[in-house]
Write a structure and sequence with these properties.
With 306 residues, the protein is α/β, with parallel strands linked by helices. The chain has 2 domains: 237 residues, Rossmann fold, CATH 3.40.50; 59 residues, Histone, subunit A (Orthogonal Bundle). 50% of the residues lie in helices and 10% in strands. A 6-stranded parallel β-sheet has the order 3-2-4-1-5-6, sandwiched between helices. Helix 2 links the parallel strand 2 and strand 3. Helix 11 runs antiparallel to helix 12. One of its GO terms (biological process) is tRNA modification. This is tRNA dimethylallyltransferase.
Length: 306
């Protein structure tokens, strides 16, 4: 009988951590985080790392376990996460996977597609464009060369945009043409639970979360990292906007409004990504836990019996 992964997905600020902990406690197991920003120990407030109480409520893996100065790719995460899950499955038949980074979730549940080798000078040229002209020309180029991938990728993440562009340019084909829905057979069953809500509710929760982050000291956290703002990990929503404020380019009020706007855009892309999986069990953010836990037990039993 195969072991099981219960993957909890959904847009930012929807309550994934809370549900993952409930499920972990119900099945007496542990949690593997697939949030690509919560890996970094220097970024606590702006990435909404689980609180001490939440971390004590259920054991988490891959939370603040890396430094922003340490190169770390989704491929690295795939290897480490699979090794961790394999080890956890020796003690727990069920392990919880949680995160809003679709690429990192897919790395564990589906594996990677094979991409062509690209000449390094293409990336070098794209990096120079980013340094000299900013990310907007790169976004526009990706939209032209691969509108399908542009619709789902986090266009505010220069690493992802440049990676897609170098494949488009180097191969002469859209980056999305190399992405298939063929799953690699994993040694575990996968049950995906997605949390959803009306757009207005999601946006309101995002706005509230940003306000809470600021009250908890997000600006001070960003100030402490200003001398490292060139690092890729910090070129992300919540940090780059406040760097612009600290540089004197924006007012604080405008920077905060941009954080909220860019986070809303990110949430929209997360939903687009996760809705591609037709097997997802979608639940409202105000779910009935007793009913949901019963449904999950049924799904686990059905998967295990096949």
């Amino acid at each position: 009988m195969k072991n099981t992964i219960i993957s909890v997905v959904g847009p930012t600020a929807i309550g994934k951590t809370k549900l993952a902990i409930k499920i972990a406690q119900h099945f007496n197991t542990e949690i593997v985080s697939a949030d690509s920003r919560q890996f970094f120990k220097e970024m606590r407030i702006g990435t909404a790392v689980p609180t001490k109480e939440e971390l004590q409520a259920a054991k988490h893996h891959f939370i603040q376990n890396k430094s922003i100065e340490e190169p770390y790719s989704v491929g690295d995460f795939e290897k480490e996460a699979l090794a961790c899950i394999n080890n956890l499955h020796k003690q727990h038949s069920i392990v919880i996977l949680v995160g809003g980074s679709g690429l990192y979730v897919d790395a564990v549940t589906k594996g990677f597609d094979k991409f062509p080798k690209i000449a390094p000078e293409i990336r070098e040229k794209l990096n120079n464009t980013l340094i000299n002209d900013g990310i907007i020309p790169l976004q526009e180029q990706l939209k032209l060369l691969d509108p399908k991938y542009y619709a789902v990728v986090d266009t505010e993440n220069p690493h992802r945009v440049i990676r897609a562009l170098e494949v488009c340019i180097g191969s002469g084909k859209p980056y999305s043409s190399f992405i298939t829905d063929k799953k690699i057979n994993r040694p575990f069953n996968i049950i995906t639970v997605g949390i959803t809500a009306d757009r207005e509710i999601i946006y309101e929760r995002i706005n509230q979360r940003v306000d809470i982050m600021l009250k908890e000291g997000l600006l001070e956290e960003v100030k402490s990292l200003e001398n490292k703002k060139h690092l890729n990990a910090l070129n992300t929503v919540g940090y780059k906007e406040l760097f612009n404020y600290l540089n004197g380019e924006w007012t604080l009020e405008f920077a905060i409004s941009e954080i909220k706007k860019n986070t809303r855009r990110f949430a929209k892309r997360q939903q687009t990504w996760f809705k591609k999986n037709e097997d997802t069990l979608w639940v409202d953010y105000e779910y009935d836990w007793k009913q949901l836990s019963s449904i999950l037990e049924i799904h686990v039993k059905e998967k295990a019996s096949k």
